[in-house]
Amino acid sequence: MNKTTLGFILLVVGGAIAPLLGVYPTFLMKCWCFALFACAFNLLLGYTGLLSFGHAAFFGAAGYITGQSIKVWGWSPEAGILAGAAFAAVLGWVVGSLAIRRAGIYFAMITLALAQMIYFLWLQMKFTGGEDGLQGVPRGRLFGIIDLADSMNLYYVVFAIFLFGFFLVYRTIHSPFGQVLKSIRENEPRAISLGYDVAKYKLVAFVLSAALSGLAGATKTVVFQLASLTDAHWHTSGEVVLMTLLGGLGTVFGPVVGAFVIVGLQNQLADKVGSWVQVIMGIIFVVCVLAFRRGIVGELMALARKTGLGSVAK
Amino acid sequence: MFEMLGITPQALYSQLLVGLINGSFYAVLSLGLAVIFGMLNIINFSHGAQYMMGAFIAWIGLTQLGPWFGDPEFRLNYWLALLLAPLLVGAFGVFIERTMLSRLYKLDHLYGLLLTFGLALIIEGLFRYAYGISGQQYEIPEILQGAINLGFMYLPKYRAWVIIASLAVCFSTWYVIERTKLGSYLRAGTENPRLVQAFGVNVPLMITLTYGFGVALAAFAGVLAAPIFTVGPLMGADLIIVVFAVVVIGGMGSILGSIITGLGLGLIEGLTKVFYPEASAVVVFVIMVIVLLVRPAGLFGREK
Amino acid sequence: MKRKILPVLISAGLMFAPVGPAFSQAAKGAAGGMKLSDGVVKIGVLTDLSGLYSDLSGAGAVLAVKMAIEDFQAMEKGKSFPIELVSADHQNKGDVASNKAREWFERDQVDMITDLVTTSTALAVMPVAKEKNRITIVNGAASTPITSSKQCTDTNVHYTYDTYALANGTGKAVVKQGGDTWFFLTADYAFGHALEKDTTATVLANGGKVLGSVRHPFPATDLSSFLLKAQSSGAKVIGLANAGTDTTNSIKQAAEFGITPKQSLAGLLMFLTDVHSLGLKATQGMYLTEGFYWDFNDETRAWSKRFFEKHKRMPTMVQAGDYSSTMHYLKAVKAAGTDEAQAVMKKMKETPINDFFAKNGRIREDGRHVHDFYLLQVKKPEESKYPWDYYHVRQVIPANDAVMPVAQSECPLVKK
After folding, report:
1. Better-scored residue on pLDDT, C152 or A312
2. Which of A97, B48, C308, C395 would you call most buried, defined as having the most Cβ atoms within 10 angstroms of its Cβ?
């Protein structure tokens, strides 16, 4: 059994028993939502080499659509979450089509600027509640049977959604499509010369990433019963970059690790140190970029390789 | 004509003036970004934070230094701040470049963006911790207080000064880069650093000083801004994203392009405020979208 | 094969390590004499500790609540039931507040959450409290819908002020003093809209005219273009339906463009701390409505001086309200013999409030604390004789004039 399979098992088992061991479920659910968000982001940055600085647009948009559909239109939670993810996919298609016209740093700046524009649009629209946010989203009953107001029920549903997204990303990375993405990251001109329609591949990857980010945002709205501007703010875009970078770009488990560490840190530090949380995030960013580019999982794998603990299955 | 549009000439001209002022800030800031990007190929995300630092140094100089040194009369006035803040923040920029940025040149340029983003978080977080999030007030210097009655509107003297100062700085920068020998070294260093180094020009030093200069421009804009906007840790954060959009619209190719685009977009924003105020926050981004569809390289840009 | 496990285990460990401290705490036993959940009355102060409202609320709010607890324990001569205080920074974000409240209620058995500055945090926490049957006492947030819309809850008290009171106070008074043409400068989000709406109604009801309004992005760095619009309208009064730095910027820039003193500004939501940071020169003559002024009478002065000794700044109405409401809550807990929410709420609504903050204040069925307000006008610099001497009290607005009549409320808790 190779390392990745072992990792899966640990992930599934760990996630399944953690709340039973007394870990506060709502905190865990937040971690899983961000872990999914980071995995989706990693698909784009770690595997396709595209740095989007506006991914919060999809995360937040799905949250609003899901909130609106469940609270105002009375949809059931699964329909609401799907609606949110679908909307994020469409938004991803629009943003991606525009941003892919440029590459590298321009791409990042365009995604940032577009996300900011979308942020301002959300601010204006009545249904989002602007600064107040979309409050009081009921949790409802999944498929009409499972009552999601119970934290434990909701936890396993959220965990299942995370696993679904996680495996989807995993399958994508390890498919022929994923190989092309990696080749685009490594050497785009060569990929073009081999005849691949690079722009189309990038767009598909972007839409997929946006859709899964939306799935994460939609689920988060159901957990916290609230969709707010914070989720669409560029600080959140920066956070997901940090999570992925810290965890390990281009690794399977990296984003999950990164998400848990960052959400955990924020949770522990927010009460004690206030504004310093932002400073610490910044320091982690700087340190990662200068000296820790492979991230936690990346460094661990490199360590494993160096000390002869076996090969890496990426 | 004005009655048909439902506005008075006074309203229109005063809005255009305000637009011109905002445009001046956009111009100076996007100029700084363009200069840095030209030489280093790095987007300086901490530009907004450095703009904020300039404003804060001016404010600290005016109000805080006295109490620190126990002499309440001691203060660094506006004019000194205009000189000193860019120097100090520029030096800080040189420090950043030497210790951190220079390590990233051999890597993907996106790391530079990420590093400066992290730095922006640190700088803003520290100032937030020290001064809270509410803004501080900065008095307009005496000589520039008051307004000139132009008949069709009141022109605050300080705002007129902002436009003049910005244009002067932009024009001198453009002149140095496009028309002097030093500028030609810079431009050559951008195109082909190895070759220029082979000719005996100290390229790393040029790069360091260029970054320092770009940062100093940001701080200069900060001091100009201090009397107009409240001086707060987040004053640069949302502004910098608009400047990014300006840069995308203008294209990174030419210095002149970033100046003209900055001014132009300020004017357009001002006009939007007259006719359709709710859209004023997004109009720059909408224009960016249009430009991307029609001319992806930007209005003045050259494909690299 | 086993050697490969190590890095994976480390990753897993790192993944779950931050999760460790999130383990829940065991419940404590009951205290003797009173039926208290887990034996202690826990009060949580959820406020803005570092952001744009940290001056008017923030650490001062935590201090005020602490003072109330200490004073209550002193009154009980050491025989009071155990009381604990926790506090957290919600950063003016509804999701952070809701998250924290949930954690406090579910994991830490907090019984009452107070302060809750910024409407979005109040509206986010109130339903969570209702679900868990705990009490919220809102002091910091403004919007009237907290008690007058369908979002009202029966475990909530809105203690210090709301937008209706502000609108009715300042708007009415300014019109009566001759400011009968208005133009609004409104922050383009729910709070600004609510404030504009309430004030427009008041101005019209008192024979004034609203010449127009302009909405500015929130937050706005440069209000000059919007102010110029206000100037060209020729209105006698420019109503500032915004808060924080938007308000202070508006005032500053209005002076720059020569808009004041020809036209006057009405700061629809302003605090003592705003006037302090802007200075009297910039704000002189402005009208505003507050629910408390430290220099109003001997009682308010006495309490405020105590507060000032610890905080080095005079209290705002929010901080005073935090103290007063906490004291009222603790007295209600004592009277009810338990900290169970419904019983305590009943006592709080039954008992009138008579302290330095309010005389004959009472809490209505929808949770609204009905008390007097003050119409204030900022003094000229030469009129101010000592630090923090900022206001003339122009009028005491009687309690019943300052609250939205139940007939207009959409809250199901009030009988119409």
Report:
1. C152
2. B48
Contact C222 B228 (CB under 8 A): yes
DSSP string, chain B: -HHHHT--HHHHHHHHHHHHHHHHHHHHHHHHHHHHHHHH----TTHHHHHHHHHHHHHIIIIIHHHHHT-TT----HHHHHHHHHHHHHHHHHHHHHHTGGGGTTS-THHHHHHHHHHHHHHHHHHHHHH-SS-B--PPPGGG-SEEE-SSSEEEHHHHHHHHHHHHHHHHHHHHHHHSHHHHHHHHHHH-HHHHHHTT--HHHHHHHHHHHHHHHHHHHHHHHTTTS-B-TTTTHHHHHHHHHHHHHH-SS-HHHHHHHHHHHHHHHHHHHHH-GGGGGTHHHHHHHHHHHH-TT-SS----
Q: Find where tokens 């790069």 sit.
A: B207
Q: Are the beta carbons of B134 and C221 separated by less than 8 Å? A: no
Q: What are the tens digits of pLDDT across the range A109-145?
A: 889 889 988 998 888 787 887 777 788 788 888 887 8
Tens of pLDDT, residue by residue, chain B (304 residues): 555 566 677 777 777 888 898 899 999 999 999 888 877 788 899 999 999 999 999 998 888 777 777 776 777 888 888 999 999 999 999 999 999 988 888 888 888 889 999 999 999 989 988 887 767 778 788 888 777 777 767 778 888 899 999 999 999 998 888 888 888 888 787 777 788 888 888 888 888 999 999 999 999 999 999 988 878 888 888 788 888 888 888 877 678 888 999 999 999 988 887 777 777 778 888 898 888 888 877 788 765 4
- A195 and C CB contact within 8 Å: no
Q: Tokens 């620190």 sit at which residue?
A: B68
**Percentage helix, strand, coil, to 5, in chain C?**
45, 20, 35
Instruction: Kindly state the average pLDDT of the residues A11-30.
Output: 87
Task: Identify which of C54, C224, C278 has the shortest CB distance to residue B18.
Answer: C224
Q: Would an 8 Å CB–CB cutoff place A124 in contact with chain B?
A: yes
Residue of C nearest to A35 (CA): C15
AA identity, residue C285: G
Stated as kind and residue range, the H or E segment containing A91 is helix A77-99
C181 has a pLDDT exceeding 90? yes
Q: What pairs with residue C375 in β-bridges?
A: C289, C395
In a 13 Å sphere around the CA of B265, the CA atoms on its Cβ side amount to 32
**Any CB–CB contact under 8 A between A33 and chain B?**
no
Whether omega before C261 lies within 30 degrees of 0, making that bond cis, reads yes
pTM of the model: 0.83
Nearest residue in chain C measured CA to CA from A258: C15
Whether residue C54 and residue B280 make contact (CB cut-off 8 A), yes or no, is no
Listed residue (A248, A212, A171, A181) closest to A55, CA to CA: A212
Give residue for tokens 């709010």: C61
**B106 C-beta neighbours (distance < 10 Å), count:** 7
User: Does position C90 have pLDDT exceeding 70, yes or no?
Assistant: yes
Instruction: Output the CA angle B104-A114-A120, nearest 5 degrees.
Output: 125
Q: Comparing C51-60, C130-139, C289-298, which segment has the lowest mean pLDDT? A: C51-60
* Parallel, antiparallel or unpaired: strands C135-138 and C112-115: parallel
Place of tokens 């006592």: C347
Cα nearest neighbour of C93 on chain A: A230
What residue in A sits closest to B45 (Cα-Cα)? A109
Query: C181 is written with which tokens?
Result: 């043409």
Which secondary structure element, helix H or strand E, spans residue C185, and what is its range?
strand C181-187
Neighbours of C93 (CB within 10 A): 24
Helix A254-273 / helix C5-16 crossing angle, nearest 10 deg:
30
- Residue C30 pLDDT exceeds 50: no
